[in-house]
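Forgive a beginner's question, but would it be possible to get a protein, spelled out as residues, together with the matching structure tokens, please?
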Amino acid sequence: MNWYRPVAVPTELADDLVTGWTAQVGGAHRLVPDGCVDVLWIDGGRLVLCGPETSAWSFQFPAGTAAVGVRFQPGRAGSVFGLHTAEIRDRRVELDALLGSRDSRQLAERIDEADGVDAKLAVLGGRVRSWLTRAPSNDPIAAAVAELLRNDPSLPVGALAERIGVGARQLHRRCLAAFGYGPATLRRILRLQRFLRLARQPGAPVSLAGLAVLAGYTDQPHLSHDCRELANASPRELVGRTLRDDIP
């Protein structure tokens, strides 16, 4: 994505944030679910909280539209904003609904006045840091779920509950509150993201079947099914490079 530039977050915030980012948007773009929540500023003074997605979604802006944002780690944004994260699933929410119109307007004005996207991101990042300072700690069950599924994206939900030491119903409730959906959906999304990371690494295998197994899928058809369900695209379309089909 040459219109989008990730910006590393400070080490001390790595447990809370995935990345900052700047963008010069133009035309239509499609985004794939990643389990995260973003807060972003869009040229013209809009401040938006983008909830966790369950399927790919598209957006379009005039050429040269500037945007900056900060991406929260999966499961973190709900505690920061005092939300049950399922309330913002598959939604984009104007930030004044959460901060109040006065605070949201003042923040938007400060970002608007900053010179260049890096300075704008610094203003937004400073406010996010202050939110994190005042926010309660992350739900330890949510943190454990995210860690276990990142390390083993094929882990069954029952085994996940057993390792954490909670019942299946409690696990589901805590995941809804933290991630916006249950552990099975989170697992599918994190597994898809794992596939994308593996496939885009230099020297990655060109075999779809091999990549599928490395990412935690049962086989290549399982990978293709999830790509269609979650991203409305084939594995090749998502990765953007040549991959060998191992199914006759």
